[in-house]
C-alpha cells in the first residue's frame, strides 16, 4: 500500500476512493470500503482520501482521543486491500476552504474517477458541505457514490458510539460494532517489578497519548507474539497499562506489542495486603482460562 502526503502523484489518477476520517474503521466504514472495491473491480486502484493531522485535533486540541492511531489505521486499511492512502495536510488554513474550493483541490491533486462517502459526510469551512453538495460540485470532475447510514438494533453505527461503549467498559458491544477486537498497541517499557514479586510478571506498555483507553479495570485480552496467540490479563488504571501473559516466558522489553481486548472482568480495587491482591489476580486468571 502506497502512502502519499499532500502531493500530486499519478498513482491516484482514475482511482476509486473513499473520503473521510475513518477513525476506528468500524462496520459502517467497512461498508464504504466494500463499495469502493466493488466499483473498482480489478481494473482500477482503490484509495482512501483523508487528513493528517485529523481535523478534530487541529480544531479542538484538548481532550481528543482516537480509536485508531495513524499507524493502526494504515495497518487495517492495508489488510483490507486498499492500494493507497492520500493525506491532505490539515491545518487552520485548510479548514477555512469553502466547499467548492475543497472539491477543486481534491480533483486537481488526486484526480479520482469515483469518490465514495457516507451519508453523514461533511466538508469545507464549518462543515458547510454535505454528501449531496459534494455530488453537485463534483459534476464534470468525478462521480460521487453515497452509502446510506448503517444501523443495528441499538441505532446508528458510529465512532462516537464506540467511544462511549469503551469508556463504559462495554467491550463486547464495542467489538461487535467494530467488527474486530478493540486493540491497543504500545512499546514495552520498564515497570516497578511488582508483578514479579507477586508471582504474576507483567509487561508495561507505553501507548500513544491520543489513543482512547477504555474504562479503568481488569480485562481479558489476547496477544500475538511470534505468530503464537496468548491469553492475558490487562490491568488498566490511571493511564498505566500492565499485562500478565499466560503461559509465556520471554523478554519483550522495547518491543511493540498489540493487545486485543475481549471483555472487562472487574474494576480496579485497592487491597490491604499482597495476599489479597494475589488471590484477586488468581481469580481473574481462572475466569480467563475457563
UniProtKB/TrEMBL annotation:
<keyword id="KW-0067">ATP-binding</keyword>
<dbReference type="InterPro" id="IPR002606">
    <property type="entry name" value="Riboflavin_kinase_bac"/>
</dbReference>
<comment type="pathway">
    <text>Cofactor biosynthesis; FMN biosynthesis; FMN from riboflavin (ATP route): step 1/1.</text>
</comment>
<dbReference type="InterPro" id="IPR023465">
    <property type="entry name" value="Riboflavin_kinase_dom_sf"/>
</dbReference>
<dbReference type="GO" id="GO:0009398">
    <property type="term" value="P:FMN biosynthetic process"/>
</dbReference>
<keyword id="KW-0808">Transferase</keyword>
<dbReference type="GO" id="GO:0003919">
    <property type="term" value="F:FMN adenylyltransferase activity"/>
</dbReference>
<protein>
    <recommendedName>
        <fullName>Riboflavin biosynthesis protein</fullName>
        <ecNumber>2.7.1.26</ecNumber>
        <ecNumber>2.7.7.2</ecNumber>
    </recommendedName>
</protein>
<dbReference type="Pfam" id="PF01687">
    <property type="entry name" value="Flavokinase"/>
</dbReference>
<feature type="domain" description="Riboflavin kinase">
    <location>
        <begin position="177"/>
        <end position="290"/>
    </location>
</feature>
<dbReference type="InterPro" id="IPR014729">
    <property type="entry name" value="Rossmann-like_a/b/a_fold"/>
</dbReference>
<keyword id="KW-0547">Nucleotide-binding</keyword>
<dbReference type="InterPro" id="IPR023468">
    <property type="entry name" value="Riboflavin_kinase"/>
</dbReference>
<dbReference type="InterPro" id="IPR015864">
    <property type="entry name" value="FAD_synthase"/>
</dbReference>
<keyword id="KW-0511">Multifunctional enzyme</keyword>
<dbReference type="GO" id="GO:0005524">
    <property type="term" value="F:ATP binding"/>
</dbReference>
<dbReference type="GO" id="GO:0008531">
    <property type="term" value="F:riboflavin kinase activity"/>
</dbReference>
<keyword id="KW-0274">FAD</keyword>
<dbReference type="InterPro" id="IPR015865">
    <property type="entry name" value="Riboflavin_kinase_bac/euk"/>
</dbReference>
<dbReference type="GO" id="GO:0009231">
    <property type="term" value="P:riboflavin biosynthetic process"/>
</dbReference>
<keyword id="KW-0418">Kinase</keyword>
<keyword id="KW-0285">Flavoprotein</keyword>
<comment type="similarity">
    <text>Belongs to the ribF family.</text>
</comment>
<keyword id="KW-0288">FMN</keyword>
<comment type="pathway">
    <text>Cofactor biosynthesis; FAD biosynthesis; FAD from FMN: step 1/1.</text>
</comment>
<dbReference type="Pfam" id="PF06574">
    <property type="entry name" value="FAD_syn"/>
</dbReference>
<dbReference type="GO" id="GO:0006747">
    <property type="term" value="P:FAD biosynthetic process"/>
</dbReference>
<keyword id="KW-0548">Nucleotidyltransferase</keyword>
